[in-house]
């Protein structure tokens, strides 16, 4: 069946000419000559058997027909462009690896390791997503999730990745003037305590592990680990942080941990994937690579 659709070049010339009300400026935008744009418009007008512009000396005026056509054509051109961009960015299901991870875990622990994975397996295209709510996981569109806690992802295969350890940290500025070399765990009670709103037991559990008691755990509370980390770095108080989050700042000297060695928590980080994706090459490759990385604790 014949379709009454003009050429895409004519439509692009028409759209640009309407915006600029100038064949010359439309030609400059489209990298064509002025005569080429004028010819495309004339061909379009002949195709439609309607005048789209009135040429008045050096002025270009859009007719009412041209205005009506423009109003209908522009959304279609936008849709065509969007569809084309989607195809250009379409993922190859055989090489795309979609990973959903806790944002802080991904930023402070996973990202530095992904460089090594990409170098070892350059044909896989990684797509990272933020794991904010395990209940909203879409197994159809996610290959692997990296998550926290003792609860395994339903209908998935899960592997232990890391056991969690936490440490009490603060900025050097917070303890300026104190002899930190003589600090013990008890010294935390001399300073403000910072909290993560989703882990209200962090300080009580840490105190209990240190055989300490406290009558008050008041202090600023933050919704996310990166907020808590920044608050600690800026000297607001002492924070309980997982070592995987605190390590970079401890190594750079932005934070110090003078209140004792890290302690273990009963929690863990897991690597999980849908059972029906257990044989996908990209899933198997990434799973084996990351588990080996953790087991060896060396670069792969």
Automatic annotation (TrEMBL):
Highest taxon of source: Bacteria
Gene Ontology biological-process annotations: DNA-templated transcription
Record keywords, A-Z: DNA-binding, Transcription, Transcription regulation
Pfam families referenced in this protein's UniProt entry, alphabetically: HTH_1 (PF00126), LysR_substrate (PF03466)
Segments forming domain HTH lysR-type: 6-63
Any one Gene Ontology molecular-function term assigned to this protein's record: DNA-binding transcription factor activity
Keyword Transcription regulation among record annotations: yes
Family membership: Belongs to the LysR transcriptional regulatory family.
Name of this chain's protein: Transcriptional regulator
Phylogenetic classification of the source organism: Bacteria, Pseudomonadati, Pseudomonadota, Gammaproteobacteria, Oceanospirillales
